[in-house]
Design a protein that fits this description.
The chain has helices spanning about 45-60, 65-85. By secondary structure, it is mostly helical. It has a domain at about 45-90.
Length: about 90
């Protein structure tokens, strides 16, 4: 009867009907638009490697105004967070 026999999974040999046959790339691979321009898109390595790649990407950015804007936004968000948790900033001043 086969009570204790496990059923085998069906295997399908599926090839998509329409796709561009450029190179060896898989038609199922999802590639983002700017991956070849970014060094941080790989995601290889540990936390230190990813942080170093992000810092190199930030330093390699020729537009300094964008870097200042990001820094300004981060500082504003930190101050809003400290205000929400009712942090006393007077410990830094006499």
């Amino acid at each position: 009867m086969g009570i204790f026999k496990l059923r085998k999974n069906k295997r399908f040999d599926y090839t998509p009907r329409y796709y561009k046959k450029e190179g060896d790339g898989s038609p199922f691979e999802i590639k983002r638009k700017f991956d070849e321009y970014r060094t941080t898109a790989g995601g290889q390595g540990g936390l230190k490697t990813r942080f170093n790649n992000a810092m190199d990407d930030l330093k390699g950015n020729p537009d300094r105004a964008v870097n200042r804007r990001v820094l300004f936004i981060v500082l504003i968000l930190i101050l809003i967070f400290l205000f929400i948790i009712d942090f006393d900033l007077s410990i830094f001043f006499r």
